Give the backbone structure.
Amino acid sequence: MRDGEQTPGVALAKDKKLLIARALDEMGISIIEAGSAITSKGERESIKAVANAGLDAEICSYCRIVKSDVDRALECDVDSIHLVAPVSDLHIRTKIKKGRDAVRQIASEVTEYAKDHGLIVELSGEDASRADPGFLKAIYADGISAGADRLCFCDTVGLLVPERTTEIFRDLSSSLKAPISIHCHNDFGFATANTVAALAAGAKQAHVTVNGLGERAGNASLEEVVMSLEWLYKYDTGIKHEMIYRISRLVSRLTGVPVSPNKALVGGNAFTHEAGIHVHGLLADKATYEPMSPEYIGRQRQIVLGKHAGRSSITLALKEMGLVADDAQTEEIFNRVKQMGDQGKHVTDADLHTIAETVLDIYKEPLVKLEEFTIVSGNRVTPTASIKLNVKDKAIVQAGIGNGPVDAVINAIRRAVSSCAEDIILEEYHVDSITGGTDALVEVRVKLSKDGKEVTASGARTDIIMASVEAVMNGMNRLIRAE
Ligand code: MN
């Protein structure tokens, strides 16, 4: 949570930090670096709240080798500190402005100081991959003598390669009398590979961030490291891997940092299939085009339909929705999907469901119906929306404000619907203009989720607000119906 929050533009307030910390703890993460106590008063309040939340995980604060940093950490009731000493000559010269010996001495003194105050100390070498190996070992050895419980090797700017990592960790893990951690950055895309190599060569802990967040190209990602160990190395990490997708979405939402569609395991496309031939293979055996079952990390396979859709895509998508169609019905559904695809429309889960229900004659009235809505927007008002819904024949009236009219109306719908279905989350929102001009037809596509189940839905209107309302309502109906 500390290095992840160092992502440019990310700052988490106390309640958000608490939400993430609780989820990490539930998942079985053993140590949570909740922040850096020296940063600010607000940061200290957040760390303290996490430390006093009754979690099983050890709660840690980042500290420089400065006694006042340790004092601030102590004010936050943390169990441990990640005590970071610069160890490369470049870092020593530019940050400490003293020689190697001075750094060695200060690191030991601050370690001793923290131990005297009852903290668990993980002594870290910053920029260790560019440090003189002899000096690094000396500072680690001094740290152990001063009482450090653990050590850490930081590849601060991501310069390690797996082969070198293996060499370094074979040496360090056999010559040092304390467990050592690996802390990798992803500047060359090697963070996961280096982290796993270090663990295989004797590292006892790995520093990771959810979604690989962090400065520049980020840190080693939690989901990649955990799943590489679990799935590829058959190593039981003790982490509840079925929570991985949920926590990835949570962190993306709270930090506002989107996950790239092709990101390993948690990207939007990681378990999405479109091409006809692949879906044909999947239908015979899922393993054909899937490395592992998406349920393992708590997510679901998605079948994208469009003008490339084959009959097998339809069959598989129906199967995923728990619907059974005979050959003639499948053909009819297929034709209607093709028709939509030819019109340039994206066929969402909600569209397919509606088509299938109509063809299979199991169409049900939507549970949530829009009766009316009003928007006030302009340059001297806060965009405000009021909405009247008919939910299972009960009238619900709510209002919401937002950053703009679309945001306001969606906030109003969210409130109205939460009275009959809580925890529906708007994950993604896209607008496309289908034709040109100010009277263009706009298509709004949304992804909604509820308890890890995701649906996509769309609305197409000339009015962007109406299209947004339609898309969200379609998705909500699908989620509530599925329940
Ligand atoms: Mn770092």
Q: What stands out?
A: The first helix runs from residue 2 to 5.
